[in-house]
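Readers of this paper often ask what the protein records in our data store actually look like. An entry from our holdings is shown next, in its original layout:
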Amino acid sequence: MNYIYPDDLKGSPMLFLWRLKDLVKIGIGAIIAVVALAETGFTIPLVITISYAFLAIRFDYTSILDFLRYAINYFFIEQQEYRWQMRKGGE
């Protein structure tokens, strides 16, 4: 296995296009999905696992999942407040 570390050694270790933490989540999800599919024919865990695997692919230290988290945080969670008022000089 070839682990790729960033130049500054402060980033998380990666294997192929995913962080190792994401690969563990994908692996556990895949095991649960295969068991659910084999025992009950329930395909939703498999779809969720494949979707997460796609969203967790990293390019240039960011992923689609990170971008979605930032966008949701910016537009829906963080307070957006703008104030316009006259200055004392009348501008």
